[in-house]
Design a protein that fits this description.
- With 324 residues, the chain is α/β, with parallel strands linked by helices.
- The longest helix is centred in the last third of the chain and has 23 residues, at 266-288.
- 54% of the residues lie in helices and 11% in strands.
- Strands 4-3-5-2-1-6 form a 6-stranded mixed sheet, with helices on both faces.
């Protein structure tokens, strides 16, 4: 693999995290210094239910699972978006409006009072700073990336590797005009609240923190190093990824956000996608035992590839169709 191709692969691995973990969007709500210091978390932003620009064609992909008395929609999301991103879709709106319940990865991605203490407990390690784990050359790269994201090097040095990688994977998108307030979950949550629809989460914030914090230090460092090698390509690849998602190009989305992670970061792929997709398939099958209409919105990386939620359900004999 050429150097340029490898750097692109590594940047895609980082993007898989942004597309596969709601916590990535949740972290983007909060200035990094709030995690490194004992400070009061910023209040949750007020996001009004609003109309987003209409997407080209049919817009983002949507799937549906049905039985005699249940209809479950599966919709892939992007956790941070530019306010001008066109992803509105009458088909998605109709499915959302018909739902009795709305499910997200986590029900409260904007709950900074819950997120900040968890990060301070599991994402900060002053007694084992990154400068003791990375080479001098790697620290030079880390400090440069931290500076470009507006964070003092000393602040990032106390981050555990997984958290440094998470923050620095989100930072390029924020600098490029992406905003968690324009993320799909944030918009849909505001709509659900305005309509009085019950909101639930497939996971909790602490479970999402545990996914990354529970990885071995060696795997955490491997992920951080992929980011250090590919940071400059991140925004270009993110734009391509969002374009693929917004136009329903699931094959390209899989190539960008899933395939490279599976090859370059298998431990992250297993923790971030495979195990969670399996758990969510279990929960979806339980929902099918009930009745009614449910709209399920999760990171789009979970609905692409051989280990997607749909593929797991299909392997169990559950029919998943593209919603028309």
């Amino acid at each position: 693999m050429t150097t340029n191709r490898r750097l692109k692969s590594l940047s895609r691995t980082a993007l898989g995290l942004v597309l596969g973990l709601g916590l990535a969007g949740a972290v983007a709500f909060q200035p990094a210094q709030a995690f490194a210091q004992t400070v009061e978390a910023a209040p949750a932003p007020v996001v009004e239910a609003r109309v987003v620009p209409q997407a080209e064609g049919q817009g983002p992909a949507l799937w549906v699972v049905r039985d005699a008395d249940s209809t479950l929609y599966l919709f892939g999301t992007v956790h941070v978006l530019r306010p001008t991103t066109a992803w509105g879709s009458p088909r998605v709106d109709a499915a959302f409006d018909s739902a009795d319940q709305i499910w997200f990865e986590i029900s409260n991605p904007d709950d900074q009072a819950a997120i900040v203490p968890l990060i301070q407990q599991y994402g900060i390690s002053p007694d084992r700073p990154l400068s003791s784990l990375l080479t001098a050359e790697e620290m030079t790269s880390l400090n440069a990336l931290a500076a470009s994201a507006g964070m003092p090097a000393a602040q990032v040095d106390v981050f555990r590797p997984w958290f440094a990688a998470l923050v620095l994977s989100v930072a390029p998108s924020i600098r490029a005009g992406y905003d968690p307030r324009s993320g799909v979950e944030t918009i849909l949550k505001a709509r659900a609240e305005a309509a009085g629809k019950p909101i639930s989460g497939l996971e909790t914030i602490d479970k999402q923190v545990a996914i990354l914090a529970g990885m071995s230090e060696a795997d955490q460092l491997a992920f951080l190093r992929t980011l250090l090698e590919s940071y400059e390509d991140a925004t270009v690849e993110l734009d391509r990824m969002v374009g693929a998602w917004a136009t329903g190009d699931v094959a390209l989305l899989e190539e960008i956000a899933v395939d490279e992670m599976q090859t370059e970061a298998p431990a992250l792929y297993e923790a971030l996608l495979v195990r969670r997709n399996t758990d969510w398939a279990n929960q979806i099958q339980t929902m099918l035992e009930g009745s009614g209409t449910v709209f399920i919105a999760v990171g789009a990386a979970h609905l692409a590839g051989d280990d997607s939620v749909q593929e797991i359900l299909e392997a169990r004999g559950v029919n998943v169709e593209v919603a028309q």
